[in-house]
Design goal:
heterodimer; A: 169 residues; mainly alpha; Rna Polymerase Sigma Factor, Chain: A; Arc Repressor Mutant, subunit A; 2 domains; B: 260 residues; Immunoglobulin-like; 8-stranded antiparallel beta sheet; 20% strand
């Protein structure tokens, strides 16, 4: 818990922008982890992925409840488990995180904006289209392009290691 | 398979490709999310792409400015855990299990019920089984019983032809049957390779050998004789027991007569 409280709380705070609410959501996440540890399947994904997915879903739920929108993301426990896939790569390494931060900075402003609205804002594509005053199709395409550009960071981990000798085991 | 080929050929015509990013970011309606999830089971290239997108999602979560949780955060979580204890260890519900454990959790009770029913049926069959009809299970005994039980059977009492000997025998035979029964008393045990022979002489006919038998010990013994043909005879008949191999005119060991 000590290891994960910081990233969990940080993500919740980033999404909710409310320390009390973020703390409550973070506590709920650790309670769920404790209660449903038997559900976690290591072969389906890294523990970090499971915990952060739960945090993201919990935060978006809390955000929507706070805004009284009445809709929830698909945050049942089964869906969270299903939302991970077997991956030999494990979780995100510090080097990949650094590269991702760099990739985020180099994204065009409009693409970074849709990533922010979709992931940290929990907005639907229609809501994003309204906020940005753009067609829904344009928003979807922009988001897809942005995520695909960011995904390049994870597509060749060997190359990433070569570029970062300090992370070599 | 089609999706996989399309990806391999670079056609990228897989219709789900367009939705993978939205799927990874939970941006699809529930029904569509489920549809993509099923599609991923059959489409390795899409699955590989979604892995990348999931990693982007996790990376985005870690890219947030890192802030320490409130100081008493761990204590609050532990306090809530104490209020709300976890479910008993080892409790595995069918809804949570996957693969073979799920199969056995679902099918196990059915198998158990079937085994109980089969046990009940087998027990009922055992309890209601009809007892087998009594009767000799040994065919020789059955044949002896048939000879001795025949109302038309002829009984011949054979006595020793040698002076001073108390040997004797009772011979029972039936017309038309190729078996007879002989019960011997105090007849000397046969030497190795030496048998006794039963002879019959009907009126006006030469003596004829009927059967042979062996005596194991000096006491009483009973034999089912296999005759050399179905016994036929009428009128007075004389029966003799001789050592096998003895001449027709040789001495008798036992002799007796009966009127058939």
């Amino acid at each position: 818990m000590t290891r994960w409280s910081r990233p969990v709380y940080s993500l919740a705070l980033r999404i909710l922008r409310n320390p009390e609410l973020a703390e409550e959501v973070s506590q709920d996440v650790f309670l769920k982890v404790w209660k449903h540890a038997a559900v976690f399947q290591e072969q389906r994904g890294a523990f970090s992925s499971w915990v952060l997915t739960m945090t993201h879903h919990g935060s978006i739920d809390a955000l929507r409840r706070a805004k009284a929108r009445g809709s929830q993301v698909t945050s049942t426990l089964d869906n969270i488990v299903a939302a991970t896939l077997p991956s030999p790569r494990g979780g995100v390494t510090p080097w990949q995180r650094l590269k991702l931060e760099q990739a985020l900075e180099t994204l065009p402003e409009k693409q970074r904006q849709v990533v922010e609205l979709a992931y940290f804002g929990g907005h639907t594509r229609e809501e994003m289209a309204q906020i940005l005053a753009e067609p829904v199709g344009t928003v979807k395409t922009r988001l897809r392009d942005a995520i695909q550009r960011l995904a390049v960071v994870f597509q060749d981990p060997e190359q990433a290691l070569d570029e970062a000798p300090e992370f070599r085991p | 398979m089609f999706h996989w080929l399309a990806h391999k050929l670079g056609l990228r015509s897989c219709p789900q490709c367009e939705t993978l990013v939205d799927y990874a970011l939970d941006g699809l309606p529930q029904g569509q999310q489920d549809g993509v999830r099923k599609h991923l089971d059959d489409c390795p290239p899409c699955r590989e792409q979604v892995r990348d997108f999931f990693q982007v999602r996790e990376g985005l979560a870690l890219c947030s400015k890192q802030v320490d949780a409130p100081q008493d955060f761990n204590g609050k979580v532990l306090a809530r855990l104490k209020q709300d204890p976890p479910p008993p260890a080892g409790l595995l519900l069918p809804g949570r299990a996957t693969g073979w454990p799920r199969f056995w959790l679902m099918a196990g009770p059915v198998f158990a019920l079937m085994s109980v029913m089969m046990t009940v049926v087998a027990a009922a069959a055992l309890l209601t089984r009809q007892p087998a009809a009594p009767g000799p299970s040994n065919p020789l005994a059955a044949m002896s019983a048939a000879v001795l039980g025949d109302p038309k059977a002829s009984r011949v009492s054979l006595t020793s032809a040698l002076p001073g000997s108390d040997a004797g025998a009772d011979l029972v035979l039936c017309k038309g049957m190729d078996h007879a029964v002989i019960q011997c008393r105090h007849l000397q045990a046969s030497a190795p390779g030496q048998n006794y022979a039963v002879w019959v002489q009907l009126a006006g006919q030469p003596p004829k050998r009927l059967a042979r038998f062996v005596v194991d010990g000096p006491g009483s013994c009973c034999h089912l004789l296999s005759l050399e043909g179905a016994f036929q005879g009428q009128g007075p008949a004389r029966f003799m027991v001789k050592p096998e191999g003895a001449a027709v005119t040789g001495p008798d060991l036992l002799k007796g007569s009966v009127d058939l």
